[in-house]
């Protein structure tokens, strides 16, 4: 067959491609005969490999040899660490911790938000080629656990804990608020609706009774039947607004209320006699919450000046019989600029007298001890806190707008008269 000019051109191109490929293979073959210059310098050995000999909770940040997720601080001892904190990377199951202080033989590290009984601790030091790994798995426990299964559709108001360690929560309802129960390790359960359209204070008062403040009422509802108890229905003046309550004993209760324009008072009510008596006026204090501790009544609130709320304060009044002594200033948050503009929504005490304050902003909880005020679990708790209640054991419960959290305190709360 006669070849055309087009076929000749095609054959020439194929021959050229074959020639180029052949030359490429030859070049590659000969280039492989010589070693490329390596970027690895065999004379560089790196810094000494770090080693971990012991990991233990820092006693200043832990109790009972427990490290809490996100809050606990551990002390790691060993060798070949860097004295520059940023040159050490400490990992807990792969999550980085925060190195607080460092020396060549010791590191103080805040653990990340991780929990488990077999956490692997590893350390990388800048300049060292290998990791150090602790041979014994480390335990980190959760400090805060959500309970009840509440979600963003819930609007929570107040919180109580009964003698059986069951939680009781008031939530938004129409036309009156709803009462939910949360028994230990279970989900929320709707129990009944209450008498009022709001709930500012909720306490367990023994004998299966839940006491509530709302509007111009103090009243009690039977937690087993969902019915209000007529023997514990105490109306206030129509313009009064009840705010909070706390028990002195099973027969005596203090009720904080507000009279227009924002003047705070404490009423004493004796259940056995039915007598109500205004025990103390707090000038222009807009009372938010009250708490009985160690034979004193603690009262917190704020004042209004030129249309603006002032910093919240905490007073205490000594209880003698069923009367109140003069008001004594305990704490003025105006002395702490970091908390300007916050309000105290809740107060509670540990058994050894630490005062815990639940805030609406900036920090979830503050703790006041030995005239020192500081944030509590600020790395893992968030505001707003609407209520705080200590359970019968070592757990404090925080009520937020849509959640309830169980906080491991590793200590008991103060005795509460309503559960006795």
Q: Secondary structure elements and their pairing?
A:
Elements lengths: L4 H27 L19 E7 L15 E7 L8 E5 L2 E2 L1 E5 L3 E5 L5 E4 L1 E5 L6 E2 L4 E3 L3 E4 L8 E6 L5 E5 L6 E5 L6 E5 L7 E4 L4 E6 L2 E6 L11 E2 L5 E9 L2 E8 L3 E8 L5 E6 L4 E8 L2 E7 L1 E2 L2 E2 L3 E8 L2 E10 L11 E6 L5 E5 L5 E5 L2 E4 L11 E4 L4 E5 L4 E5 L12
Number of beta strands: 36
CATH homologous superfamily label of the largest domain = TolB, C-terminal domain
CATH topology of the largest domain: Neuraminidase
Placed side by side, the strands forming the largest sheet appear as 1-2-6-5
Please characterize this protein's 3D structure.
- By secondary structure, the protein is mostly beta strands.
- It has 2 domains: 51-140, Immunoglobulin-like; 144-419, 6 Propeller (Neuraminidase), CATH 2.120.10.
- Helices cover 6% and strands 45% of the residues.
- A hairpin with a 3-residue loop joins strand 5 and strand 6.
- It is elongated, with a radius of gyration of 33 Å.
- Residues 1-11, 17-21 and 23-30 have low confidence and may be disordered.
Outline:
Helix content is 6%, strand content 45%. The chain is mostly beta strands and 420 residues long. It has 2 domains: 51-140, Immunoglobulins (Immunoglobulin-like); 144-419, TolB, C-terminal domain (Neuraminidase, 6 Propeller), CATH 2.120.10.
């Amino acid at each position: 067959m006669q070849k055309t000019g087009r076929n000749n051109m095609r054959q020439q191109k194929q021959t050229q491609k074959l020639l180029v490929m052949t030359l490429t293979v030859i070049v590659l073959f000969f280039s492989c005969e010589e070693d490329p210059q390596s970027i690895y310098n065999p004379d560089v050995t790196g810094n000494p490999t770090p080693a971990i000999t012991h990991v233990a909770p820092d006693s200043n940040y832990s109790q009972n040899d427990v490290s809490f997720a996100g809050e606990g601080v551990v002390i790691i001892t060993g060798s070949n660490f860097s004295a520059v904190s940023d040159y050490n990377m400490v990992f807990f199951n792969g999550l980085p911790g925060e190195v607080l202080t460092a020396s060549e033989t010791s590191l103080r590290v805040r653990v990340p938000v991780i929990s488990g009984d077999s956490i692997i601790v590893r350390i990388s030091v800048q300049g060292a080629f290998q990791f150090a790994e602790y041979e014994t798995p480390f335990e980190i426990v959760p400090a805060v656990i959500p309970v009840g299964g509440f979600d963003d559709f819930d609007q929570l108001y107040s919180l109580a804990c009964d003698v059986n360690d069951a939680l009781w929560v008031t939530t938004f309802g129409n036309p009156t608020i709803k009462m939910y129960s949360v028994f230990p390790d279970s989900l929320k359960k709707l129990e009944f609706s209450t008498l009022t359209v709001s709930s500012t204070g909720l306490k367990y008062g023994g004998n299966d009774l839940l006491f509530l403040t709302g509007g111009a009422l103090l009243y009690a509802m039977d937690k087993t039947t969902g019915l209000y108890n007529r023997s514990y229905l105490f109306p206030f003046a129509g313009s009064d607004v009840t705010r909070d309550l706390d028990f002195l004993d099973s027969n005596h209760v203090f009720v904080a209320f507000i009279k227009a324009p924002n003047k705070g008072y404490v009423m004493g009510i004796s259940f056995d006699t039915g007598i109500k008596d205004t025990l103390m006026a707090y000038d222009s204090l807009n009372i938010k919450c009250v708490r009985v501790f160690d034979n004193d009544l603690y009262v917190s609130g704020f004042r209004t000046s030129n249309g603006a709320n002032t910093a919240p304060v905490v007073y205490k009044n000594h209880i003698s019989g069923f009367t109140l002594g003069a008001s004594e200033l305990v704490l003025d948050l105006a002395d702490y600029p970091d908390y300007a503009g916050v309000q105290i929504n809740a107060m509670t005490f540990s058994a050894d007298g630490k005062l815990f304050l639940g805030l609406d902003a900036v920090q979830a909880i503050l703790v006041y001890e030995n005239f020192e005020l500081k944030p509590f679990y600020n790395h893992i708790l968030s505001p707003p806190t609407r209520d705080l209640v200590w359970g019968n054991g070592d757990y404090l419960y925080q009520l937020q707008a849509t959640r309830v959290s169980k906080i491991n305190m590793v200590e008991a709360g103060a005795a509460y008269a309503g559960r006795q």
